[in-house]
Amino acid sequence: MCGIVGYIGDRKAQNLLISGLKRLEYRGYDSAGIATLSSTGQLTCLREKGKVAQLAALQVTNEVDDSIGIGHTRWATHGTPSIVNAHPHTVGRITLVHNGIIENYQDLKQILESKGYSFKSDTDTEVLTALIDSLYKDDVSLLDAVLGSLQLVVGAYGIAVLASNKPNHIVAARSGSPLIIGLGDEETFIASDASALVGHTNQAIYLKEGEIAVCRAGTVELYDIAANPITPAVETIESDMQAIQKDGYDHFLLKEIHEQPEALRSTLAGRLRSGSLYAHLGGINMSDTELREIRNIIVVGCGTANYAGQLAAYLIEQFTEDVSIQVEIASEFRYRSFHIPENSVALIVSQSGETADTLACLTELKRRGVRCLGIVNAVGSTITREVDGGVYVHVGPEISVASTKAFTSQVAAMILFGLMIAQAKGTSTQELSTFINDLNDLPTEIEKLITDLEPDIKTLAKSYAGYDHALYFGRNTLFPIALEGALKLKEISYIQAEAYAAGELKHGPIALVDDSFFEVALIADNWLYEKSKSNLIEVNARGGHVIAITDSKKHIQAETIVRVSTSLTQLTPLLFNVVLQLFAYYVSLERGNDVDQPRNLAKSVTVE
Ligand code: AGP
Q1: Can you tell me which atom of ligand 1 is nearest the CA of 355?
Q2: Which residue among 306, 328, 352 has the greatest number of ligand 1 atoms within 8 angstroms of its CB, and so is best to mutate?
Q3: Hey, which of 218, 296, 313, 513 would disulfide with 186, CB 3.0 to 4.6 Å?
């Protein structure tokens, strides 16, 4: 997620902006920049692709004493990570930083180009900057130019704006992307979150949706989108940075589980035209003809990324008749003398984009001439620089070692790719509508599930946290969910959790069932219901302590039952997965473990 900072007062803005950006680094970014104005309106803008430290180095040789400025850390959405795409952007007398997505920026760009504007970057932000410049006249205040522009904009934004001929105030506005205004002694701060204010002030105004602030040194005027003045509500903010970055949650893991609906909306933004029931991915770099020729998909990943691929494979094969899908554990695949079927394409799945085993497979697959596409979260990571194209899942930084929101969005991104293949092969949107509708409904369904079930899962976890062994099992699309759920429990609670295809239990694993185990049975209300239920009965008959998780309303005999209520038809496994994420979190909490940094684990395994 991008980060915004701003300052106006009597101190050196450059230093304060850079230290503020350092506080926001946890949000994840791939480029950074600051812009300051002298008292005579001389602009000094420094931008760097990469880390804030590089920006600080640039400042050393471009030092100015300006006391007003704005800064930004950019998580690339429109346009690759680069200096030209980095914020702040300047057009005419206007300099701006922006969080969010302007959905109608292409239309606005055409209108502005017809007025003589030209653009250097690929970003929606530069278009917004030009739009404000086009309305900013000698008899039109910066506030009115911003208000007028925001009336024309469709999308989400948090912005901070400077005008070079008026270096005595900053205009900030919020719609969908948080902004906070810090009030100091003769100085005012702007930031995306309070972590950038800690140590400067604890008095702040949280901009509400649609509010605009005119910030001067130590004072703020607040307006609504219709330019009506608003009396600001000043609050005392938290001084614990970690607490701020967790946004009020006890752990990053719980925050990231709860973030999944928003993260998924970011993944799907602009990629699912629900009106025309059409999937579109920009970064695949494949024509419809090339998509039509695909006969085999090789999905490569480790851990959670691998399980996301396994679930995606079960789902994609349901709507692409002549495409086979093989899912490979990267650390095994790289050492096999594998054969590549004709017309193969590889999906390289990785949250960090830096996993050594996955990267090694990418290198070998490219050496063998296979087109490789990334399904990655970290923008600009090594894998994204080596693939032939791909899809950023855009879930924002995943801080907790256990992967949660990335899994859900990786599956969604791979389904979108499968839908593009099916569409290219002429499959009707009617035949694909259940998947497209489920993708559109999934964020809300996850929100509903968390609200409905989290309290019960928290209670349930206490009853099972004392066990040291567990068996997870499910059939078909619930088998990868059993694998992922068992991994979540293993890695943060240290309970030895094994996952099996439910049909495999009678081939050995059921010998394990005794009072030292509990079992998690995943039972879908579909054509395999009776088969799944019989697996449950087998385990019950041997004295199992079974937690049955099901979307069925039918009677089930189990020690504990968690019923998932949903309108989804195809993507219900992703709801079961959220239940298991929450279960693992609360079991780990009950066992007093370090939830976000479990023992022996790293967030990105860059070693082999
Ligand atoms: C998942 O909770 C684990 N942290 C781990 O299995 C992880 O998924 C695996 O190391 C792959 O990481 P990547 O997605 O960054 O490549």
Answers
A1: 16
A2: 352
A3: 218
Sequence-ordered list of residues with C-beta below 8 angstroms from that of 29, at least 6 positions apart, any chain: 2, 3, 73, 74, 75
Catalytic residue list contains 215:
no
Q: Report pLDDT for 271.
A: 87
For ligand 1, the distance from its centroid to the CA atom of residue 359, given in whole angstroms, is 13
- Residue whose CA is at the smallest distance from ligand 1 atom 6: 303
Could you give the dihedral angle defined by the CA atoms of residues 418, 421, 427 and 432, in that order, rounded to the nearest 10 degrees? 20
Confirm whether 51 is a catalytic residue.
Answer: no
Q: Which CATH number fits domain 444-591+601-608: 3.30.70.20, 3.40.50.970, 3.40.50.300, 3.40.50.10490?
A: 3.40.50.10490
Strands 278-279 and 3-8, bridge-based pairing: unpaired
pLDDT in tens, 463-504: 999 999 999 999 999 999 999 999 999 999 999 999 999 999
Q: Ligand 1 pocket check: which of 252, 256, 299, 304 to mutate, most ligand atoms within 8 Å of Cβ?
A: 304
One of 3.40.309.10, 3.30.565.10, 3.40.50.10490, 3.60.40.10 is the CATH number of 246-427, namely 3.40.50.10490
Token readout for 436 is 């497209």
- Say which range, 197-211, 267-281, 283-297, has the weakest mean pLDDT: 267-281
Reduced to 3 states (helix: H, G, I; strand: E, B; else coil), residue 321 is coil
Q: From the options 3.40.190.290, 3.60.20.10, 3.40.50.720, 3.40.630.30, give the CATH code of 3-243.
A: 3.60.20.10
